[in-house]
Amino acid sequence: MTEYILQFHSLGSTEKVRADFNSENSAEELIRQLNFEGYKMYQYISSEYTYNMSVEELGELNIPFAKYDRVKKTWFGLSKKTVSDLLIAPKNRFFYPYQYGNYLYIFSKREITKNEFKNWLNKEFPSQHADLDYTFAGFNSEYLKLMNTDDYIIVTCHDYQEQLGITGNSSVISELIERLNKLNLTELELEKYQGRSRKTKTQ
Question: What is the DSSP-derived secondary structure letter of residue 49?
């Protein structure tokens, strides 16, 4: 039995809902159960975590994905290197294997194009890891914009896959919490609280 912590963040609000519970399901299965019918799931894996499955392996499995090259500074900022991030498109409920890191799952009723995603990512997550970490914790849910108003996203905790941050509009969040209540979970506890505000970029 795994102990889970889910943090729900409604867009435009500092109010959060934390859910603590135990479940026999893996995090992968739990995320599947939170995937509404009619929604496609996209997975964004930054270059730091793409060692779990190579581009070649994805190709062998015929998994559709887009590569995004970006320039990254080294630890001390003395030099730069080009790295490649991945956006994995929905196919046969495929999940990119997780070890640790901030993975971003985007749920949308609409097809997301490569350029649309790149523009959104650069605007909403210019600092990559730091911004994803803030989103996991809900620090920027007052300012975050999604590609479509009825989209929602899940960001994993950097160190623990069993901790998830979930962001969407208030009606979507309410539906997700209702869905959670209907799952076979042990010792489910829901707590509302006011989150801290931390503006991460100029609006």
Answer: G
Contact 17/42 with Cβ under 8 angstroms? no
Low-confidence ranges of the chain (pLDDT < 50): 200-203
In a domain, 201, yes or no: no
Q: Give the model's pLDDT for residue 74.
A: 74
User: Who contacts 50 (Cβ-Cβ below 8 Å, separation ≥6)?
Assistant: 84, 85, 86
Pairing verdict, β 2-10 and 163-168? parallel
Whether 182 maps to a domain, the answer reads: no
pLDDT of residue 200: 47
Q: What are phi and psi of 101, to 5 degrees?
A: 120, 170
Structural domain tally of the chain?
1
Buried b (16+ CB within 10 A) or exposed e, 137-158: bbbbbbbbebbeeebbbbbbbe
pTM recorded for the entire structure: 0.92
What's the confidence (pLDDT) of residue 109?
Answer: 97
Question: Which contiguous run of DSSP H or E holds residue 58?
Answer: helix 55-60
